[in-house]
Amino acid sequence: MITVRFPDEPTERRALGFLTGRFSFTSIKTGETLIPEAALAALAVEGIVYTVEGPVSYGQAVPTLRSAPPAEVQ
User: Fold this and answer.
1) Alpha-carbon distance 43 to 19, whole Å?
2) Does 33 reside within a domain?
3) Higher pLDDT, 43 or 59
4) What is the CATH classification number for the domain harbouring 20?
5) What are the φ/ψ torsions at residue 55 (nearest 5 degrees)?
6) Are 3 and 54 spatial neighbours (Cβ–Cβ below 8 Å)?
7) Residue 73 included in any domain
8) Ramachandran class of 5: left when φ > 0, alpha when ψ lies in -120 to 50, beta otherwise
9) Are 15 and 43 in contact, with CB atoms under 8 Å apart?
10) pTM here?
11) Residue 47 belongs to a domain
12) Per-residue confidence at 59, pLDDT binned at 50, 70, 90?
Protein backbone atom coordinates (compact mmCIF):
# COMPACT_ATOMS: atom_id res chain seq x y z
CA MET A 1 0.00 0.00 0.00
CA ILE A 2 1.11 3.52 -0.84
CA THR A 3 0.06 6.81 0.77
CA VAL A 4 -1.05 9.47 -1.72
CA ARG A 5 -2.52 12.95 -1.41
CA PHE A 6 -4.72 14.73 -3.94
CA PRO A 7 -4.29 18.47 -4.63
CA ASP A 8 -7.90 19.46 -3.88
CA GLU A 9 -11.24 18.05 -2.81
CA PRO A 10 -12.82 17.76 -6.29
CA THR A 11 -9.82 15.76 -7.51
CA GLU A 12 -10.00 13.55 -4.43
CA ARG A 13 -13.72 12.87 -5.00
CA ARG A 14 -13.05 12.03 -8.66
CA ALA A 15 -10.20 9.69 -7.67
CA LEU A 16 -12.21 7.94 -4.98
CA GLY A 17 -15.09 7.51 -7.40
CA PHE A 18 -12.72 5.96 -9.91
CA LEU A 19 -11.11 3.66 -7.32
CA THR A 20 -14.42 2.40 -5.93
CA GLY A 21 -15.07 -1.09 -7.21
CA ARG A 22 -11.66 -1.33 -8.90
CA PHE A 23 -9.19 -1.20 -6.01
CA SER A 24 -9.32 -1.34 -2.25
CA PHE A 25 -8.40 1.93 -0.56
CA THR A 26 -8.63 3.76 2.74
CA SER A 27 -9.25 7.48 2.96
CA ILE A 28 -7.96 9.10 6.14
CA LYS A 29 -9.30 12.24 7.79
CA THR A 30 -5.90 13.92 7.38
CA GLY A 31 -6.41 14.00 3.60
CA GLU A 32 -4.23 11.01 2.84
CA THR A 33 -5.45 8.00 0.90
CA LEU A 34 -3.94 4.52 1.13
CA ILE A 35 -4.02 2.66 -2.18
CA PRO A 36 -2.31 -0.41 -3.68
CA GLU A 37 0.66 0.19 -5.98
CA ALA A 38 -1.32 -1.02 -9.01
CA ALA A 39 -3.77 1.85 -8.51
CA LEU A 40 -1.03 4.44 -9.10
CA ALA A 41 -0.79 3.61 -12.79
CA ALA A 42 -4.58 3.44 -13.17
CA LEU A 43 -4.97 6.92 -11.66
CA ALA A 44 -2.25 8.28 -13.96
CA VAL A 45 -3.94 6.79 -17.04
CA GLU A 46 -7.19 8.49 -15.99
CA GLY A 47 -5.34 11.81 -15.75
CA ILE A 48 -5.94 12.17 -12.02
CA VAL A 49 -3.20 14.22 -10.34
CA TYR A 50 -1.79 12.98 -7.04
CA THR A 51 1.34 13.21 -4.90
CA VAL A 52 2.96 10.08 -3.54
CA GLU A 53 3.75 10.46 0.17
CA GLY A 54 5.49 7.06 0.44
CA PRO A 55 4.81 3.56 1.67
CA VAL A 56 2.19 3.01 4.34
CA SER A 57 3.47 2.91 7.90
CA TYR A 58 2.68 -0.09 10.08
CA GLY A 59 0.25 1.94 12.18
CA GLN A 60 -1.75 2.92 9.09
CA ALA A 61 -1.73 -0.57 7.57
CA VAL A 62 -2.92 -2.48 10.63
CA PRO A 63 -6.48 -1.67 11.64
CA THR A 64 -7.19 -1.03 15.28
CA LEU A 65 -8.64 -4.19 16.75
CA ARG A 66 -9.22 -2.96 20.26
CA SER A 67 -12.63 -3.21 21.77
CA ALA A 68 -14.06 -2.07 25.07
CA PRO A 69 -12.18 -3.50 28.05
CA PRO A 70 -13.82 -6.55 29.63
CA ALA A 71 -15.98 -6.11 32.69
CA GLU A 72 -14.21 -6.41 35.99
CA VAL A 73 -14.58 -9.83 37.64
CA GLN A 74 -15.15 -9.79 41.38
Assistant:
1) 8
2) yes
3) 43
4) 3.30.70
5) -65, 155
6) yes
7) no
8) beta
9) yes
10) 0.72
11) yes
12) low
Environment class of 24 (CB within 10 Å of its CB; exposed 0-12, middle 13-18, buried 19+):
exposed
* Spatial contact of 53 and 28, defined as CB atoms under 8 Å apart: no
Domains of the chain: total:
1
Contacts of 51 (CB under 8 A, 6+ apart): 4, 5, 6, 7
Tell me the residue ranges of DSSP E strands in 1-59: 2-5, 26-27, 32-35, 51-55
Range of the domain at 25: 2-57
**Residues 18 and 50 sit within 8 Å (Cβ to Cβ):** no
SS3 29: coil
Q: Using CA atoms, how far apart are residues 27 and 30, in angstroms rounded to an integer?
A: 9
The length of the chain in residues reads 74
Confidence band (pLDDT; 50, 70, 90) for 3?
Answer: very high
